[in-house]
Amino acid sequence: MSSRALPAAWRTHAERTLPRYTSYPTAVAFKTAAGEAEARAWLGATRADQTISAYVHVPFCKRLCWYCGCHTSVFHEYDRVQAFFQTLMLEVDLWADAIGPHAGAAHLHFGGGSPNALAPDDFLVLVRHMADRFALRPGAEVAAELDPGMLTEAFIDACGEAGVTRVSLGVQTFDPEVQAKVNRIQPFDMVAAANDRLRKTGVSAINFDLMYGLPGQTPENVAATTSAAVGLRPDRVAVFGYAHVPWMKKHQVMIKEGELADGDGRWAQAEAADSILRAAGYLRIGLDHYALPGDLLALAAASGTLRRNFQGYTDDPAPVLVPVGPSSIGRFAAGFVQNAAATDVWSRAVEAGRLPVARSLRVSAEDELRAAVIERLMCDLTVDVGAECLSRGFEPTALDDAVAAAAALQVDGLCRVEGRTVTIPAEAFRLMRVVAACFDAGLLAAERRHARAV
Ligand SMILES: C[S@@+](CC[C@H](N)C(=O)[O-])C[C@H]1O[C@@H](n2cnc3c(N)ncnc32)[C@H](O)[C@@H]1O
Ligand code: SF4
């Protein structure tokens, strides 16, 4: 099993701080002072034959991992979480009443934070309420991201009863020393037991999140973690590079920068995980996902229907994403909306009977075009830019400046440009954001806010 070192010509590219392109335009472009009226009008435009999805953000955790980049806070008393749960139930009604006729929900996703901060009964009631109010379709995916460190047997059983189809467990690392450095003690046996019980309860698909670039991580201990993880045979594995942004996430100052690997070290760690996963039969999907060949994501990748949205890579084709919970982002035909991030602001709006939307962005036809090109590159590693332009009513030359910018990356081997088709070679997949960035019209203003590309 050989791992490739970071080629010298790629070092500067890997250092670039770039968006993850889970949307285009990226969330930093969303404007404040969005009107609730706008969100209602956009929602109302949903067609009766369109499926919808919903994302629920639970911004609570039992612990704060020092590396965490998510929107969350630690709770000590359940009263706070329960009050939050009751507001969530009201918010589901607000969105369901506003949306009008649609073809039912194809996908419910619970993220955070840790949705298992909710009491098992409250979680069950919430899933059933959403299934009812959003007309959950038969065979729909109901997915939840769970923290194994506070995952009780009662919660796992509630997942079974609620009809949860997929669970993502945050594994990150099994190395005890790295766990101590990031304030996340989580023995292997804890994850193995959760994995077993989830499967026995009927949760048919399990994902693991792994990380590289954490303090104290080395190619060797990333390899050991990855081998232990694949031994449990998760259906999917995500391998995320630690995004160190202490200017945005203050608790990350707890991480000693001197203990973080440099670009070459991060690359070697990512390669170590990659080679073990692929040798174990996992297919590489997009930037940071791996899946067993029968998994829905692998099937979507094989058929060219893979999508990228705020949850990362998905096979969910629904054109409408309803945002539930503080900071959640929604997508409607006309544009994006984001709920208020502060839990008190969000709950005051909901309790007053208002959709808790704080920011929005209407997307233009050009935004849609750029978004499509970026999404295909991030999903398929290849895109016929001219064909995308034509299919959206633009001249095939409309993005020629961006194609020329991509062509300038050919000399370093990041992509190939033939006519207007841009292709990222498999070995350069980890730098796909650098190629995608050529099509990002708003990048210059945003570049300083993001984390490094690798
Ligand atoms: C919402 S958490 C997963 C569920 C649960 N809270 C847990 O930690 O087990 C989402 C995932 O984001 C990843 N993540 C969190 N902070 C990150 C960061 N700063 N850089 C890269 N990935 C990060 C972790 O892999 C984590 O599992
Ligand atoms: S990584 Fe997960 S458990 Fe840890 S603080 Fe972030 S959201 Fe919470």
TrEMBL record:
Lineage runs: Bacteria, Pseudomonadati, Pseudomonadota, Alphaproteobacteria, Caulobacterales
- Where is the major localization of this protein? cytoplasm
Keyword annotations for this protein? Answer: 4Fe-4S, Cytoplasm, Iron, Iron-sulfur, Metal-binding, Oxidoreductase, Porphyrin biosynthesis, S-adenosyl-L-methionine
Q: Could you tell me the superkingdom of the organism this chain comes from?
A: Bacteria
- Catalyses which reaction(s): coproporphyrinogen III + 2 S-adenosyl-L-methionine = protoporphyrinogen IX + 2 5'-deoxyadenosine + 2 L-methionine + 2 CO2
Record localization: Cytoplasm
Give the metabolic or biological pathway: Porphyrin-containing compound metabolism; protoporphyrin-IX biosynthesis; protoporphyrinogen-IX from coproporphyrinogen-III (AdoMet route): step 1/1
SMART domains on file: Elp3
Subunit composition and interactions: Monomer.
NCBIfam families linked to this entry: hemN
Cofactor binding summary note: Binds 1 [4Fe-4S] cluster. The cluster is coordinated with 3 cysteines and an exchangeable S-adenosyl-L-methionine.
Q: Could you tell me what this protein is called? A: Coproporphyrinogen-III oxidase
- According to the entry, every stretch annotated as the Radical SAM core domain falls at 46-288
Family indicated by similarity: Belongs to the anaerobic coproporphyrinogen-III oxidase family.
Cofactor entry? [4Fe-4S] cluster
EC number of this enzyme: 1.3.98.3
